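Troubleshooting log. The previous run stalled partway through. Resubmitting the same two chains, unchanged.
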Amino acid sequence: MGLFQNAIEAAGFATASVSVQPMITLGLGVPRAGYVRFPIGNPMGEPGDVAMQTAILTDLLRLVWQAPSPRTVVKFPYRWRRRLPRR
Amino acid sequence: MDFPLLNLANVEELHREWQGRVAEAHHGVVYYPDEVAFTRPEKPMNEAVVALGSTSGAHLANQTPYDMQDHAGDLTVRFIPGDTPMDDIVFTHDHTDHADADKDPNCLFPLGRLRDLADQGVIGAVSPIHASASGFMPDPGPFLRDTVPEVIDRFRAAEVDVVLFTPG
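Second attempt completed without errors. Output:
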């Protein structure tokens, strides 16, 4: 995802990504990313949880306008409610 | 900025280690530049055209699924129209548990939520076109070289301003 994101940003689009694997995001370097401690198949949250999905999407948008410089990786303030699978 | 930065204590070291590992995996070819591009949005949020980009393996039910048998991975893109009903979005990905997204595709490809934000006036408009790719690309070089230019062309034609990415 990060490579895709970087190429799109370089082409003139402002981007942000949600990351559940922050070591990769930090190691690679992307323009803007928000980290959530969620399972790999659920970066936007739990199924049917409209409020959380909307909140994460809105935070990604806010990050696009607020990030001061590239390689901005932030922590999003969301908690997974169901039992987290072991990674 | 409203958000706390993730602890950046070892970023330089992480970056070098990552470049080393990638170079090893790809026979010395490093796709990760030292300089990360940065495009500032020109319009305010409530005027911006927003698209989704994804490596979640999302595609339309009537599109060819991603090839999970090819050891080189599937390096093609699936374009998803902005008005696609969420029931028409499915996932092909053998390396990620997408059981929740199968029930609610917004978990991995939040197009329904993006439409909500446009309806509420938070963003200017949902892009007429969105781009999804496979999450399994052992060597992403051909994807970057051959597929991404088409995505860029389509996003430019759609006058996209902002692209939000989800992984898979």
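Takeaways: The radius of gyration of chain A is 13 Å. The longest helix of chain A spans residues 50-66.
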